[in-house]
Amino acid sequence: MTTQTLPATDLLRVEPPRRSQRSGWSRLTATMPSWVLTTALAIVFLYPLVWTAVSSVAPKAGTSQVHGWGLGNYAALAHYQAGVWVYLGNSLFVSLLTVLLTLVVSLLGGYAFARFSFPGKNVLFLVTLAILMVPYATLLIPLYVILNAVGLSNSLVGVGIVLTMFQLPFSTFMMRISFESIPRELDEAAMVDGCSTFAALRRVLLPAVKPGLVTVGLFAFLAAWNDFMAPLILITDTNRMTLPLAVANLRVQVQGVIDYGATEAGVVVLALPCILLFLLLQRHYVRGFMSGAFKG
Q: What is the pTM of this model?
C-alpha cells in the first residue's frame, strides 16, 4: 500500500477555518460594547422595580410586615378604605374607556386625514397637534367647570373623556401615518369590488393598520392607568378614586407617618398590569405597519 503525500499547495488550503475563527472573535469584540451598554441600561431601569418588589414583602419596622417575609403590606393595601379591588375596578374602567374612545376617534380621524381632501385639512390637523403644546395641568380646571355643567363631575366617565382628549393628538398622528403607509390601490381595489368607504376601512385597511392600533391602545392604557392628576382634580368621592390616587392617599395615614410598605405594595400592583400588557403586545408593537396588509 502506498501513501500519497499532499502537495504544499493543498496544505495551504486548510487556513480558512482559522480566518473565520478570527472573524468571529472580531465580530464578538465589535458587539461587546453594545452588549455591555444594553446590560447596564437594563440593570439601571430594572433595579428600582426589583428593589420595590422585594421591599414590599421584606420585614421592615413601621409597616404592616414587621416580622419575617410575607404579604402583610398587600393585606393593608387590600383593606384600605373601600378596598383595593374597588380602586382596581375604577382604574380598569377608566383605562378601558379611554382606550375604546381613543381607538375609535383616532381611527376615524386618521383615516379622514390620510384618505380624504377637505378645506382646512392641514390647519385642522395642526390645531389637533397643538394640544400637545398646552400644559396638561392648566386645562384641568376649565375642564372641571365644563364637566360640572354637563353633569359629569366626580364621574369616572368624565375622567375617561378628559384622558381621551389628551391622547387624541398623538393617536391621530400615529393613525394618519399608518394609513398613509398603505398604498391607495388596496382600498381602490376594494371599492371596485363594490365596497363602500367604511366597508373598505373595515375589511381591508383595518387589518393593515393593526400595529398602529396596538401602539395607540397601549399608549392610551398606560397613560390612563398611571394618571394621577386628572382623578385628583375631577374625583371627590373616595369610593371612585383610581388606584394611583388611592395609593397616594394611603401613603400618609396617621399623624403624617409614611407607610412605605403599603406604598411599595401599591407600586407593584400598579406596575404589574403594565408590564404584562407590554410583554404580551410587544410582538405587535414592534412590527411594521404594513405587516397585516398581505395576510388577507
A: 0.80
- Written as one string, the DSSP assignment of 169-235 is HHHHHHHHHHHHTS-HHHHHHHHHTT--HHHHIIIIIHHHTHHHHHHHHHHHHHHHHH--HHHHHH-
Render pLDDT for 158-203 as a digit per residue (tens, 0 to 9): 999 999 998 999 899 888 888 888 888 887 888 887 778 888 888 8
Cα 141 to chain centroid distance, Å, stands at 27
Which helix or strand (DSSP H or E) is residue 254 part of?
strand 252-254
Task: Give CA–CA dist 9/3, Å, rounded.
Answer: 18
What domains sit in the chain, N to C, each tagged with a CATH number? 73-286 (1.10.3720.10)
Opening angle at CA 282, ends 106 and 159, nearest 5: 40
User: How confident is the model at residue 127, as a pLDDT?
Assistant: 87
Look at residues 46, 232, 207, 38 and name the one whose alpha carbon lies nearest to residue 137: 232
Q: How far is CA 21 from CA 24, 27, 243, in A?
A: 5, 10, 56
Tell me which of 134 and 31 has the higher pLDDT: 134
Cell of 4: 500519497
Residue 61: C-alpha distances to residues 5, 52, 260 (Å): 82, 16, 10
3/99: higher pLDDT:
99
Task: Using alpha carbons, select from 201, 195, 197, 196 the residue that is nearest to residue 179.
Answer: 201
